[in-house]
Amino acid sequence: MYIKNLFIACLTLSSLAVGAQESDSYFVYTKNFNPKTQQTAESPKAEEKPDFISQHFRFHSLCDWQPGMKFMVMPEKYDLIVSTFCDAETRREVDNGTLRHKIMVYKGHQVVNGHSRVIFNCQEDQKDYYYQITTGSFESYCGGKMGVPTLAYLGDVDTARVQLVGRTLVTKLKSYYRDSNLLEDGREKVNTRKEQEVKVVAVGVGSRKYPVKLIVEDEKGEQFFMDVAISRTNSGMRDDEFGAADEVPHTFRGAFDLRDEFTSSNKDYARYLDKQVYTLYATKMKNQKGEDVRVVKLSRFKVTKIQASERENYVTFTLKSLKSGEVFTKEVTFANQDVIGAVDGNDESYVAELFSLGDPGKDVPAAHRDLIQKGRIAKGFTRQEVLLAKGMPMKKIYRENGVEEWAYQNGTIVRFDKNGKVVK
Fold this sequence. Notes:
18% of the residues lie in helices and 31% in strands. The protein is an alpha+beta fold. The strands form 7 sheets. Strands 3-2-6-5-4-1-7 form a 7-stranded antiparallel beta sheet. A 5-stranded antiparallel beta sheet has the order 13-12-11-8-14. The N and C termini lie far apart (104 Å).
């Protein structure tokens, strides 16, 4: 007798060949990997957060599964010595290895001889299989997050393909994985950089716990991946288990940030990215050929990209000249204590002393700009213009009637009147 009449015609493919092809499409690999020589593969881990995750990746408790939901049989090593499913026609247990990588379509549940069964149709062979709940009713069992063993929820994979392929993410870890033909579990760990921008190039199936395999590519064309759980539907893990240190890297939020969200939440990035800046002193940058070139004071740029550097606590600014359109890069830091050099008493790599936001033309007359770029000053210069031309003085002397003198190490004395203008 059925508790709920949930048997609804589910979408199936007309031939076994077509079913097998769809199953294969869920497996993706980093380039230069030959899946045909792979022996067995295991899997990693994942998490979520409101906003983007809650909008697109809803958790589905077994209690609210709907007919037509798709899963893939992804047994772990220990699953290969037990059986999860029974053949609905023969009522005999079916080895998990036989069903490995088969797509199972949820049909509903029923009670037979006092035992609840969760029913699936195998997309490849069109046969029905069931998972038997050994104790208690379906209602009492489905409230937990254990679900049905071995099944990776493909709904998250399909959604991730739509929402994430081609999108830019920011890495949050120092190591990820790459597919390998040489290792037994089919993957090798690779060292990467935190907070670098990567693009999602493929999404496939990972494992039951971490169903979504995200393959990303960095600016050098190197590919690596992480298996993550996003909605956690049928992941088999409780929320508190996902809080464990070794599980966090296998959560979406533990492994990646969306670029837009990362930039807006990082005050340093948000302050400079896509903003106009100008140099406060002459400095070295790299041109598009990778050559070191010198740019003069008051050179105007737009910061088009900020990327984590290979050096800890440093980032690389990509800057487009507003005068010539040329593109340059400059390695800088937001933290003053990390500065490694100085130019004319200024910190070469410290963003706050190297760049100023805005357009110097609004505050500095064109006639003064040419002199400033040559390190010279003239009558009528303001204190700010003198700072741009000469830098900070060694000493400031305050005279009567509001007169002020700035003394520089080379013996130069600059005198300001009470209005703050240079006098001769």
